[in-house]
Amino acid sequence: MASVAAWLPFARASAIGWVPVARNPLPTPKVREEHKRGDNKMLINVSGRRFETWRTTLEKYPDTLLGSNEKEFFYDEETKEYFFDRDPEFFRHVLNYYRTGKLHYPKHECIQSYDEEMSFFGIMPDLIGDCCYEDYKDRRRENSERLLDDKASENGDSTPAVTIREKFWRAFENPHIGTTALVFYYVTGFFIAVSVMANVVETVPCGIIPETNENPPCGERYELAFFCLDTACVMIFTAEYLLRAYAAPDRCKFIRSVMSIIDVVAILPYYIGLVITDNDDVSGAFVTLRVFRVFRIFKFSRHSQGLRILGYTLKSCASELGFLLFSLTMAIIIFATVMFYAEKNVIKTKFTSIPEAFWYTIVTMTTLG
């Protein structure tokens, strides 16, 4: 216990931004006679907000700041209270730890500030209760990933680019460093928007043809124009992908990344369509493959910080979303089974099997009115 008391003031000093310069150890704090009873109330002032608790409540954890004699350094003789220039919103969680022995994490607060406050009061932030452990772990992992990304980008910007590959990669990752990179950034964004819009417009009917009295979609009526437009977009996307693959510091990691897979899926249907023949056996498969062109809309995530933040959020909430999907699937199966057996003996029923009842169950569960 004595060894802990020896190093705690120095660790706590580093947490608030100053380091004591002294060759001799700090003096032993003076304990007043009225505080030796251990059963009196304590008044704690945290940045103007006052908290009251029993001294015995704090002394349950003598290895912490409030449970040890070190708190006497913060005692104000005039006001007869302990004053801490800290965040009062976090302090209520500190005080609840002394009362209940369980540490809880406020999920809407900054994870770094939370850890700093806990460290100042000598409480290990890892002592999180089971109810908050998953939230704390996810927020800490997400914060660590962001700090690593920021550190990598700062290091990349601080060191001058030497090779052509480094210049290309820096231009792709931070297009605002130069005019050429910025122009390419907006050009690729423009072609992504054009490609997505063309994919939608080509399915719209373009009017009745007088000779045949047919109303074909625009994709069939102006097939050559849409093909040329799609070719131009794919050429831009292919050039971007090849340049990124060439400039990537770690090509294997780049090829396995999610954004790289999206790039490949977005352009792959075009090249398969060039080599595929007008064979009835493969035409249906090609039509299905063309659906993957809609993945080009995900290329916008390279151009939007908000979409990247959304990706981080979905990644951190993957377990919760997975449980929600599992619960919804269970409910659909249960209610579809009930509907099937309830309508089984009805003449001309639409629920001829449990899978046939899935659609009715899904629509009923996910719509109102």
Automatic annotation (TrEMBL):
Keywords: Ion channel, Ion transport, Membrane, Potassium, Potassium channel, Potassium transport, Transmembrane, Transmembrane helix, Transport, Voltage-gated channel. GO terms for molecular function: A-type (transient outward) potassium channel activity. Gene3D superfamilies: 1.10.287.70, Potassium Channel Kv1.1, Chain A (3.30.710.10), Voltage-gated potassium channels. Chain C (1.20.120.350). PANTHER family: POTASSIUM VOLTAGE-GATED CHANNEL PROTEIN SHAL (PTHR11537:SF105), VOLTAGE-GATED POTASSIUM CHANNEL (PTHR11537). Residues 40-139 form the BTB domain. It is a multi-pass membrane protein. It comes from the Eukaryota. It comes from Octopus bimaculoides. This is BTB domain-containing protein.
